[in-house]
Amino acid sequence: MKILALIGGSGSGKSTVLDGLRNHFGERAAVLSLDNYYRPKSELPVDENGETNFDMPVVIDDETMVSDIDVLRAGKSIHLSTYTYNRDVMKSETVTIDPAEWLIVEGLFAMAYPAMEERVDLVGYIDASPETRLARRIARDGSERGYTEDEVRYQWKNHVRPADLQFIEPWKTKADVVVDNEKDWKSGLNELIDKMERA
Predict the structure, then answer these.
(1) Is 26 left (phi over 0), alpha (psi -120 to 50) or beta?
(2) pLDDT score for 183
(3) Which of 129, 134, 156, 191 has its CA 20 to 30 A from that of 140?
(4) How many structural domains compose the chain?
């Protein structure tokens, strides 16, 4: 099993590129989302105003995630519960992930843990400007998660952008493929697919 880490800031378009990879690889690729490894909200850090900060590597139960990856690498399936964010908008469900030729590990902090650097074969970085990403996040979090625009802007300024700069954007220069999702993401997707097929 080879492992692709698919990373990029919030609203960069990871889901769009992931859909393209799924369409190409089909059952040859399994997907593991970091979203499903969030620790309980009661364990997450809070900022100086008492607001929960979802945008730090510590919010992910990385030990369990790495353990699950190793189970998949050993040729066995895993079972996990999907994450339901912090508003009662979605319901959790149990999903089974089977081993495949490729494991795509998707999420903001997929490369924020030393254990991942040891395991990942390719890094795909999805790039879009902060302005574009903020606009996408306002639209998404309003419709899907019930946040007001003020709430989204607060999180962006105090949590999201600082995490971008510290943990995510440094990977832009180290990634194997950078997908420009500001304009023509399909060419970047094709480059990523080509690298995966030749890996």
Answers:
(1) left
(2) 82
(3) 191
(4) 1
